[in-house]
Specification:
By secondary structure, this protein is an alpha/beta fold. It is 41% helix and 19% strand. It has a seven-stranded mixed sheet with strand order 3-2-1-4-5-7-6, sandwiched between helices. The structure holds S-adenosylmethionine.
Length: 233
């Protein structure tokens, strides 16, 4: 989820890890209490549907707002592992874990170079991260390779709506994406951040369909939320 926070007081350009580190607490509030986010996160966890006891990796986990939904699926024998390259969001995720009385498995690393052993992962997912990756299709293929045949993979992303009636909200959505992008993003792209994000989201979900069977695809929140899931072939 892009985070619509005022950027006027931030530097003219900032890397994504710096941006998410600086705004980790604001992002965490939006990620947990923003309108409709609970429904989106439940839809992701239901679509991923990892078996009880599974080890689930979330790439670009942010402050681990998906963790309660995924923990509910894998149960006490299962394990949630979050990977993110921004130290600030991992700090907040760790604090949240301590509040719950446990130490979450969080790894600082690049989602496009998964720092994990393939045999250790049963399922993986990415929420609102595909739109930030330069080659999201390649990343999805790597994630599928990590879980291997029979493993589960799911994506949750936001994109402009194609639904009649809801499309009229796309201009507001484009502003939301621009406001929630690291400063300098719009200048560094040839098209609007929302257009680039849409293209990456489509590429990621298409890549998931190409490597999976049992594919589920659902749109929620007026077509702005897209969830894909499947079992890796
Ligand atoms: C919009 S936030 C989503 C966070 C979380 N998945 C959620 O549902 O709230 C995107 C997150 O992806 C992380 N991210 C983006 N590109 C990444 C990469 N290549 N490797 C690791 N983390 C990345 C950012 O640091 C940020 O925390």
């Amino acid at each position: 989820m892009s985070s619509p926070v005022p950027t006027a007081t931030l530097a003219a350009s900032m890397s994504a890890p710096e941006f998410y580190t600086r705004l980790a607490r604001v992002y965490d509030t939006l990620a947990r209490h923003g309108p409709g986010v609970g429904r989106l996160r439940r839809t992701l966890a239901d679509a991923l549907d990892p078996p009880s006891g599974a080890t689930v990796v979330e790439f670009g986990c942010g402050t681990a707002a998906n963790r309660p939904y995924l923990d509910a699926k894998v149960g006490p024998e299962g394990t949630y592992v979050g990977v993110d390259f921004a130290p600030g969001v991992l700090r907040v995720a760790r604090e949240r874990g301590r509040d719950r009385g446990d130490v979450p498995h969080l790894i600082r690393g690049d989602a496009t170079r998964p720092p994990l052993k393939p045999e250790a992962v049963d399922a993986c997912c990415g929420a609102f991260v595909a739109g930030m990756l330069a080659d999201p299709a390649e990343a999805v293929r790597d994630w599928a390779g990590l879980v291997g045949p029979g493993g589960r993979i799911a994506l949750l992303d936001l994109a402009q709506s194609t639904r009649p009636g809801w499309r009229r909200l796309n201009p507001a959505y484009r502003l939301f994406v621009r406001a929630g992008s690291p400063p300098g993003t719009a200048r560094s792209l040839e098209r609007s951040p929302a257009a680039v994000q849409d293209e990456r989201v489509v590429a990621a979900h298409r890549a998931l369909r190409a490597v999976c069977t049992d594919i589920e695809y659902e749109t929620v929140l007026g077509g702005f939320g897209r969830v894909s899931a499947g079992t890796v072939e």
